[in-house]
Specification:
The protein has helices spanning about 1-25, 35-75. With about 80 residues, the protein is mostly helical. The model has no long low-confidence stretch (mean pLDDT about 90).
Length: about 80
Amino acid sequence: MFDDAQKEFDKSLRAMAENSLLKKLNSQGIKRADISSEKFEELLVDEIGILKADGKKVGAGVGIGIVLSLITGGIF
């Protein structure tokens, strides 16, 4: 069950990273066909790392917000 969920998450993350990477390349005037598959995969791995790091930051922010809400709600 967890393996299926992890595979689905990885698949979705890869799709999001691919879309984001293609948008970044297009904004710089670079088409997908202009770069090799190896270079695209390298850039894709970097983009996945960026998305994972951003997700961790958002998760930490939400967690801190919940803790602060519980603390301040309990004090006042």
